[in-house]
């Protein structure tokens, strides 16, 4: 299933999906071996208990011997001590194993997702990705932490009890074996349906998580349009659909559990009836029957435990299938097998040669068509034009969020597809139109531009971006928490943080996307001075709808429909007429 939707599931791989857990369990073999050792010890201690019970009946009660009873109960208490220690140790090993394996799984999954390209995130919902990182991994953790332990302990106990039953009373054991097919049949019949419903239940929960993530991250828009009731109803509908699917899954598991219990304890009743007749006939001792019954109870409990765990296994298989699909996603934009390094020091000459590009989501419409442009080292070039002209696409291709379908883009003669993504993006500083602020301190948000920057460098960048004054006015200053998505800051303040990041990055190539759009006139004047200093000695591309902000550019490139329709200085373009003159007339007259 594509992470974009839960409506088109791929064919299920069923239990085979659980094989993908092995790489995360393999490094913790010592814990697994310890768990198996203590599992064998606890199971062995449990299987000794019926022998003690038979000994009490036949030797203690039958001969009225206090000595035998005392010795038997002391031995019984010793077995209980062994059982208690082995059970606790088994729980410690398997629980720690599950925590370590799932921590590794979550880290691997997150590291994989964060490295996927922009195209993946355009077709994915963040809420569903979070569901796979949290809800799905929790289901898998429940299987490893308790389900697997219960399943293996039940299997060991079932085999041990079955062998002991045959050794104790072969005729009664044969009678018990007759009902095993009847017990396994409902597990096979209901099991596949439970797995499908488990997968569907996880998908419906992911849908609800996606809605919640989307609306909570846009809380101001929701409130501005008074959509609280509408969004609550939409989320409630998603939860109702998830509940309906869960109800069907729970119902199916309940039927499975009921069928197994009825069949198992029906078999025990039948065996007890047959055993009681043997005791009355004198062909079977009372202690032997008691021992056999306890083994039968152990076997019945193990079968019931396996049936319960089977549902968890199927649910975890569905969750692991979803996780496996995410791990199976591959980025289209990757490093070349033999990368070329960008020249050092960089001159930062940009060259677009006949670039044509279609977004994957809009394959029939060219965002850029036969786009050719050369930006000389140290030159400041402004890209202007109406919305949809392709200006932002130029930035996306420079950052190699996408590759063009034809043509090439080169920096200092090196094709972007020939160098590493880290090397390319490390040479670029971006000030986006929509600034992203993280839920950390002001200093951490500025240091996002260069992680190894010292405190003095962070403050200097803030001063250059005209951000030092408002940061100093915050409680705790540079250590002040800015809140999720920067809710404590105004739009202009958030944009100054982004400019401070770019200043701190000190990259040879600078991309400014409406860098002053959220500033008032006074702040914009100060920022323009800071940007002028920042642009010195750097190749700079500027996107701006407000033409007043690009008049100082060395060259203005006018774009329309993914093509360059004119280029020159502000004065020459005004004199030439055309699209730029029309845009200028509309803005300056207004």
UniProtKB/TrEMBL annotation:
Gene3D superfamilies per UniProt: ABC transporter type 1, transmembrane domain (1.20.1560.10), P-loop containing nucleotide triphosphate hydrolases (3.40.50.300)
Topology term for the membrane: Multi-pass membrane protein
NCBIfam families cross-referenced by the UniProt entry: MsbA_rel
InterPro entries to which the protein is assigned, alphabetical: AAA+_ATPase (IPR003593), ABC1_TM_dom (IPR011527), ABC1_TM_sf (IPR036640), ABC_MsbA_ATP-bd (IPR011918), ABC_transporter-like_ATP-bd (IPR003439), ABC_transporter-like_CS (IPR017871), P-loop_NTPase (IPR027417), Type_1_exporter (IPR039421)
Keywords in alphabetical order: ATP-binding, Membrane, Nucleotide-binding, Transmembrane, Transmembrane helix
Biological classification of the source: Bacteria, Pseudomonadati, Pseudomonadota, Gammaproteobacteria, Lysobacterales
Name of the protein this chain belongs to: ABC transporter
Residue spans crossing the bilayer: 74-97, 142-166, 172-191, 255-276, 288-310
Main location as per UniProt: membrane
Biological process, per Gene Ontology: oligopeptide export from mitochondrion
Stretches assigned to the ABC transporter domain: 350-586
Organism: Rhodanobacter thiooxydans
Record's subcellular location: Cell membrane
A single MF term (Gene Ontology): ATP binding
ABC transmembrane type-1 domain span: 36-315
GO cellular component: plasma membrane
């Amino acid at each position: 299933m594509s992470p974009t939707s839960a409506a088109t599931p791929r064919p299920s791989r069923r239990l085979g999906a659980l094989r993908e857990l092995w790489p995360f369990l393999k490094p913790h073999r010592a814990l697994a071996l310890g768990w198996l050792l203590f599992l064998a010890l606890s199971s062995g201690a449990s299987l000794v208990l019926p022998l003690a019970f038979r000994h009490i009946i036949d030797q203690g009660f039958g001969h009225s011997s206090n000595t035998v009873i005392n010795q038997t109960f002391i031995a019984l208490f010793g077995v209980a001590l062994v059982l208690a220690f082995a059970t606790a140790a088994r729980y410690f090993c398997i629980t720690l194993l599950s925590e370590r394996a799932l921590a590794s799984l979550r880290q691997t999954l997150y590291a994989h997702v964060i490295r996927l390209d922009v195209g993946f995130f355009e077709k994915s919902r963040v809420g569903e990705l979070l569901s796979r990182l949290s809800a799905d991994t929790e289901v898998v953790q429940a299987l490893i932490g308790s389900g697997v332990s219960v399943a293996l302990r039940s299997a060991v106990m079932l085999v041990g009890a079955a062998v002991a039953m045959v050794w104790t009373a072969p005729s009664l054991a044969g009678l018990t074996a007759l009902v095993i097919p009847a017990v396994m049949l409902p597990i096979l019949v209901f099991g596949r349906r439970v797995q499908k419903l488990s997968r569907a239940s996880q998908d419906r929960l992911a849908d609800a998580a996606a809605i919640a993530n989307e609306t909570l991250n846009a809380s101001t828009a929701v409130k501005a349009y008074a959509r609280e009731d509408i969004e609550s109803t939409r989320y409630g509908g998603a939860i109702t659909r998830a509940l309906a699917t869960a109800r069907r899954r729970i119902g199916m598991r309940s039927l499975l559990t009921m069928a197994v219990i009825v069949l198992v304890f029906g078999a025990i009743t039948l065996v007890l009836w047959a055993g009681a007749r043997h005791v009355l006939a004198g062909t079977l001792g009372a202690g032997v029957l008691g021992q056999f019954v306890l083994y039968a109870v152990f076997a019945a409990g193990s079968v019931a435990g396996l049936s319960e765990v089977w549902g968890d296994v199927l649910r975890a298989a569905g969750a692991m299938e979803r996780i496996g699909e995410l791990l199976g996603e591959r980025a289209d934009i990757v490093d070349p097998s033999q990368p070329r390094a960008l020249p050092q020091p960089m001159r930062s000459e940009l060259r677009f040669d006949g670039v044509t590009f279609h977004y994957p989501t809009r394959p029939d419409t060219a965002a850029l068509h036969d786009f050719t442009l050369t930006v000389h080292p140290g030159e400041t070039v402004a890209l202007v034009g109406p919305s949809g002209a392709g200006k932002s696409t130029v930035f996306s291709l420079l950052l190699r969020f996408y590759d063009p379908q034809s043509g090439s883009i080169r920096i200092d003669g090196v094709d972007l597809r020939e160098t590493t993504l880290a090397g390319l993006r490390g040479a670029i500083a971006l000030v986006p139109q929509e600034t992203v602020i993280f839920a950390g301190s002001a200093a951490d948000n500025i240091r996002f531009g260069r992680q190894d920057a010292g405190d003095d460098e962070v403050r200097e960048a803030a001063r250059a971006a005209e951000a030092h004054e408002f940061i100093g006015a915050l409680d705790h200053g540079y250590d002040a928490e800015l809140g999720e998505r920067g809710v404590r800051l105004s739009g202009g303040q958030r944009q100054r943080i982004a400019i401070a990041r770019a200043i701190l990055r000190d990259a040879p190539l600078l991309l400014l996307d409406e860098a002053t759009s959220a500033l008032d006139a006074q702040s914009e004047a100060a920022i323009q001075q800071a940007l002028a200093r920042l642009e010195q000695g750097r190749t700079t591309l500027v996107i701006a709808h407000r033409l007043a902000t690009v008049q100082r550019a060395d060259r203005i490139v006018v774009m329309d429909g993914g093509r360059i329709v004119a280029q020159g200085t502000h004065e020459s373009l005004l004199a030439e007429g055309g699209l730029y003159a029309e845009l200028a007339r509309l803005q300056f007259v207004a």
